[in-house]
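Lab notes, practical 5.
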Amino acid sequence: MYIIQMVERSDELIVDNIWLKSHLDDLDLVVIDGRGAVAYGSGHIKNALPLSLDDVISISENGANLVLEGAAAENPFGKLGIDESKKVVVYGENFDPSAARIAWTLLYNGHNNTSLLGIAFSFIRRGGTLPIVRDLPKPVVTNFISRPNDSLRADERMIKEKLNDDATVIIDSRTPLEHTQARIPGSLLHNWENGIGDDGKMIKSGEDLLNEFNAFGIAKDKEIICYCHSGTRASHKYFQFKHAGFKNVRCYDGSIIDWAQRRNPIR
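Output from the prediction step:
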Protein backbone atom coordinates (compact mmCIF):
# COMPACT_ATOMS: atom_id res chain seq x y z
CA MET A 1 0.00 0.00 0.00
CA TYR A 2 1.37 3.41 -1.04
CA ILE A 3 1.05 6.10 1.64
CA ILE A 4 1.30 9.78 0.73
CA GLN A 5 3.26 11.77 3.27
CA MET A 6 1.37 14.98 3.97
CA VAL A 7 2.93 18.36 4.72
CA GLU A 8 2.66 19.60 8.27
CA ARG A 9 0.52 22.70 7.87
CA SER A 10 1.81 25.99 9.15
CA ASP A 11 0.61 29.57 9.01
CA GLU A 12 4.19 30.84 9.08
CA LEU A 13 5.07 33.22 6.24
CA ILE A 14 8.76 32.31 6.66
CA VAL A 15 10.06 28.74 6.89
CA ASP A 16 13.67 27.72 7.50
CA ASN A 17 15.92 25.27 5.64
CA ILE A 18 15.60 22.71 8.44
CA TRP A 19 11.83 22.55 7.95
CA LEU A 20 12.23 22.37 4.19
CA LYS A 21 14.81 19.59 4.37
CA SER A 22 12.49 17.46 6.49
CA HIS A 23 9.60 17.93 4.04
CA LEU A 24 11.43 18.13 0.73
CA ASP A 25 10.03 14.86 -0.64
CA ASP A 26 6.46 15.41 0.55
CA LEU A 27 4.06 14.99 -2.35
CA ASP A 28 1.89 17.90 -1.32
CA LEU A 29 4.77 20.39 -1.25
CA VAL A 30 5.65 22.61 -4.21
CA VAL A 31 9.00 24.40 -4.06
CA ILE A 32 9.44 27.36 -6.40
CA ASP A 33 12.79 28.79 -7.48
CA GLY A 34 12.23 32.50 -8.14
CA ARG A 35 15.73 33.38 -9.38
CA GLY A 36 15.10 33.09 -13.12
CA ALA A 37 15.80 30.44 -15.77
CA VAL A 38 19.56 30.96 -16.10
CA ALA A 39 20.24 30.73 -12.38
CA TYR A 40 17.89 27.76 -12.08
CA GLY A 41 19.72 25.91 -14.84
CA SER A 42 23.04 26.19 -13.01
CA GLY A 43 21.64 24.36 -10.01
CA HIS A 44 18.60 24.47 -7.76
CA ILE A 45 17.13 22.87 -4.66
CA LYS A 46 15.98 19.31 -5.26
CA ASN A 47 12.39 19.11 -6.59
CA ALA A 48 12.19 22.88 -7.11
CA LEU A 49 10.41 24.27 -10.15
CA PRO A 50 11.35 27.52 -11.94
CA LEU A 51 9.11 30.59 -11.97
CA SER A 52 10.49 34.00 -12.83
CA LEU A 53 9.26 37.47 -11.92
CA ASP A 54 8.13 38.05 -15.50
CA ASP A 55 5.83 35.03 -15.22
CA VAL A 56 3.71 36.65 -12.49
CA ILE A 57 3.21 40.20 -13.76
CA SER A 58 1.26 41.83 -16.56
CA ILE A 59 2.06 45.20 -18.10
CA SER A 60 -0.79 47.71 -18.14
CA GLU A 61 -1.37 50.26 -20.87
CA ASN A 62 0.38 52.91 -18.79
CA GLY A 63 3.44 50.69 -18.30
CA ALA A 64 2.74 49.65 -14.70
CA ASN A 65 3.53 46.11 -13.54
CA LEU A 66 0.31 44.54 -12.27
CA VAL A 67 -0.41 41.29 -10.49
CA LEU A 68 -1.81 38.33 -12.43
CA GLU A 69 -5.24 37.14 -11.41
CA GLY A 70 -8.08 35.01 -12.72
CA ALA A 71 -7.28 32.77 -15.68
CA ALA A 72 -3.96 34.57 -16.23
CA ALA A 73 -2.78 33.30 -12.82
CA GLU A 74 -4.48 29.90 -12.98
CA ASN A 75 -2.49 28.79 -16.01
CA PRO A 76 1.10 29.21 -14.72
CA PHE A 77 0.33 28.10 -11.18
CA GLY A 78 -1.67 25.09 -12.34
CA LYS A 79 1.22 24.02 -14.59
CA LEU A 80 3.42 23.95 -11.51
CA GLY A 81 1.05 21.53 -9.81
CA ILE A 82 -0.31 24.03 -7.30
CA ASP A 83 -3.82 23.60 -5.95
CA GLU A 84 -5.60 23.85 -2.60
CA SER A 85 -3.93 20.69 -1.31
CA LYS A 86 -0.39 22.03 -1.75
CA LYS A 87 1.97 23.89 0.53
CA VAL A 88 4.15 26.28 -1.51
CA VAL A 89 7.62 27.50 -0.52
CA VAL A 90 9.32 30.14 -2.66
CA TYR A 91 13.04 30.81 -2.47
CA GLY A 92 15.53 33.20 -4.06
CA GLU A 93 18.41 35.48 -3.08
CA ASN A 94 18.40 37.97 -0.25
CA PHE A 95 19.53 40.82 -2.52
CA ASP A 96 16.63 40.19 -4.93
CA PRO A 97 12.98 40.77 -3.89
CA SER A 98 11.57 38.69 -6.77
CA ALA A 99 10.79 35.66 -4.58
CA ALA A 100 8.70 37.88 -2.32
CA ARG A 101 6.73 39.18 -5.32
CA ILE A 102 6.03 35.63 -6.47
CA ALA A 103 4.92 34.59 -2.99
CA TRP A 104 2.76 37.72 -2.61
CA THR A 105 1.12 36.94 -5.96
CA LEU A 106 0.13 33.49 -4.70
CA LEU A 107 -1.22 34.97 -1.48
CA TYR A 108 -3.17 37.60 -3.42
CA ASN A 109 -4.71 34.86 -5.55
CA GLY A 110 -5.98 33.13 -2.44
CA HIS A 111 -3.28 30.50 -1.88
CA ASN A 112 -2.77 31.20 1.81
CA ASN A 113 -0.51 28.21 2.39
CA THR A 114 2.46 30.02 0.86
CA SER A 115 5.79 30.81 2.55
CA LEU A 116 9.15 32.33 1.81
CA LEU A 117 12.24 30.27 2.52
CA GLY A 118 14.12 32.28 5.12
CA ILE A 119 17.65 31.74 3.80
CA ALA A 120 19.13 32.79 0.44
CA PHE A 121 19.94 30.10 -2.12
CA SER A 122 23.62 31.07 -2.39
CA PHE A 123 24.06 30.50 1.36
CA ILE A 124 22.27 27.15 1.13
CA ARG A 125 24.56 26.07 -1.69
CA ARG A 126 27.66 27.28 0.13
CA GLY A 127 26.70 25.54 3.34
CA GLY A 128 25.42 22.33 1.77
CA THR A 129 22.30 22.42 3.93
CA LEU A 130 19.95 21.24 1.16
CA PRO A 131 20.52 18.98 -1.86
CA ILE A 132 21.33 20.95 -5.04
CA VAL A 133 20.60 19.34 -8.42
CA ARG A 134 20.24 20.31 -12.09
CA ASP A 135 17.45 18.02 -13.27
CA LEU A 136 14.04 19.47 -14.10
CA PRO A 137 11.13 17.80 -12.24
CA LYS A 138 7.93 17.10 -14.14
CA PRO A 139 4.95 18.36 -12.14
CA VAL A 140 1.45 16.96 -12.50
CA VAL A 141 -0.72 19.76 -13.87
CA THR A 142 -3.51 20.73 -11.46
CA ASN A 143 -6.54 22.98 -11.42
CA PHE A 144 -5.41 26.15 -9.65
CA ILE A 145 -8.35 28.41 -8.82
CA SER A 146 -7.68 32.13 -8.47
CA ARG A 147 -9.56 33.77 -5.62
CA PRO A 148 -8.21 37.33 -5.46
CA ASN A 149 -7.92 38.74 -1.95
CA ASP A 150 -8.40 42.49 -2.31
CA SER A 151 -7.32 43.06 1.30
CA LEU A 152 -3.71 42.56 0.16
CA ARG A 153 -3.80 45.05 -2.69
CA ALA A 154 -4.15 48.82 -3.05
CA ASP A 155 -4.74 50.87 -6.19
CA GLU A 156 -4.64 54.54 -7.14
CA ARG A 157 -8.16 55.19 -5.87
CA MET A 158 -7.33 53.79 -2.45
CA ILE A 159 -4.09 55.76 -2.22
CA LYS A 160 -6.01 58.97 -2.89
CA GLU A 161 -8.54 58.09 -0.21
CA LYS A 162 -5.83 57.30 2.35
CA LEU A 163 -3.43 60.22 1.76
CA ASN A 164 -4.78 62.22 4.69
CA ASP A 165 -5.93 59.28 6.81
CA ASP A 166 -4.10 59.26 10.17
CA ALA A 167 -4.85 55.55 10.56
CA THR A 168 -2.84 54.71 7.42
CA VAL A 169 0.91 54.86 6.77
CA ILE A 170 2.05 54.81 3.14
CA ILE A 171 5.54 53.29 2.99
CA ASP A 172 8.05 54.01 0.24
CA SER A 173 10.15 50.85 -0.03
CA ARG A 174 12.71 52.34 -2.42
CA THR A 175 16.11 53.91 -1.83
CA PRO A 176 16.62 57.33 -0.23
CA LEU A 177 17.72 58.74 -3.60
CA GLU A 178 14.54 57.55 -5.33
CA HIS A 179 12.44 58.92 -2.49
CA THR A 180 14.11 62.31 -2.80
CA GLN A 181 13.63 62.44 -6.55
CA ALA A 182 9.93 61.52 -6.66
CA ARG A 183 7.48 60.17 -4.09
CA ILE A 184 3.81 59.94 -3.23
CA PRO A 185 3.01 62.96 -1.02
CA GLY A 186 3.10 62.14 2.67
CA SER A 187 4.75 58.74 2.23
CA LEU A 188 7.36 57.53 4.71
CA LEU A 189 10.66 56.15 3.46
CA HIS A 190 11.68 52.71 4.72
CA ASN A 191 14.05 51.08 2.24
CA TRP A 192 13.21 47.40 1.65
CA GLU A 193 16.90 46.58 2.14
CA ASN A 194 16.59 47.64 5.79
CA GLY A 195 14.59 44.46 6.36
CA ILE A 196 17.15 42.02 4.97
CA GLY A 197 18.75 39.86 7.64
CA ASP A 198 22.41 39.05 8.24
CA ASP A 199 24.23 35.87 7.17
CA GLY A 200 22.04 35.18 4.15
CA LYS A 201 18.71 35.62 5.86
CA MET A 202 16.00 36.78 3.48
CA ILE A 203 14.40 38.85 6.19
CA LYS A 204 15.16 40.00 9.72
CA SER A 205 13.45 38.46 12.72
CA GLY A 206 9.95 39.64 13.51
CA GLU A 207 11.18 41.14 16.78
CA ASP A 208 13.94 43.13 15.10
CA LEU A 209 11.57 44.39 12.44
CA LEU A 210 8.96 45.42 15.00
CA ASN A 211 11.56 47.33 17.00
CA GLU A 212 12.72 49.10 13.86
CA PHE A 213 9.21 50.03 12.79
CA ASN A 214 8.45 51.28 16.29
CA ALA A 215 11.57 53.46 16.12
CA PHE A 216 10.11 55.03 12.97
CA GLY A 217 6.85 55.68 14.80
CA ILE A 218 4.91 53.03 12.86
CA ALA A 219 2.44 51.42 15.25
CA LYS A 220 0.98 47.93 14.74
CA ASP A 221 -2.58 49.27 14.75
CA LYS A 222 -1.93 51.28 11.56
CA GLU A 223 -2.98 50.24 8.10
CA ILE A 224 0.17 49.88 5.99
CA ILE A 225 0.33 50.43 2.24
CA CYS A 226 3.70 49.67 0.64
CA TYR A 227 4.89 50.93 -2.72
CA CYS A 228 8.11 51.08 -4.72
CA HIS A 229 8.88 51.61 -8.40
CA SER A 230 6.86 48.73 -9.82
CA GLY A 231 5.65 46.64 -6.86
CA THR A 232 8.42 44.06 -6.41
CA ARG A 233 10.31 45.66 -3.52
CA ALA A 234 6.96 46.61 -1.98
CA SER A 235 6.10 42.90 -1.88
CA HIS A 236 9.19 42.22 0.20
CA LYS A 237 8.22 45.09 2.49
CA TYR A 238 4.76 43.50 2.78
CA PHE A 239 6.40 40.34 4.17
CA GLN A 240 8.47 42.43 6.56
CA PHE A 241 5.43 44.07 8.11
CA LYS A 242 3.49 40.81 8.28
CA HIS A 243 6.48 39.06 9.84
CA ALA A 244 6.59 41.83 12.45
CA GLY A 245 2.96 41.14 13.36
CA PHE A 246 1.13 43.87 11.49
CA LYS A 247 -2.36 42.75 10.51
CA ASN A 248 -3.53 45.22 7.85
CA VAL A 249 -0.87 45.40 5.14
CA ARG A 250 -1.26 46.02 1.42
CA CYS A 251 0.88 46.50 -1.69
CA TYR A 252 0.16 49.32 -4.09
CA ASP A 253 -0.01 47.30 -7.29
CA GLY A 254 1.74 49.22 -10.05
CA SER A 255 3.31 51.51 -7.44
CA ILE A 256 4.81 54.85 -8.44
CA ILE A 257 4.78 54.02 -12.16
CA ASP A 258 1.01 53.75 -12.01
CA TRP A 259 0.72 56.81 -9.73
CA ALA A 260 2.84 59.02 -11.98
CA GLN A 261 1.35 57.83 -15.27
CA ARG A 262 -2.10 58.79 -13.98
CA ARG A 263 -0.70 62.30 -13.49
CA ASN A 264 -1.06 62.36 -9.73
CA PRO A 265 1.01 64.80 -7.65
CA ILE A 266 4.61 63.81 -6.91
CA ARG A 267 6.82 65.46 -4.32
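Observations recorded by the TA: The first helix runs from residue 17 to 23. Residues 155 and 248 are 15 Å apart (CA to CA).
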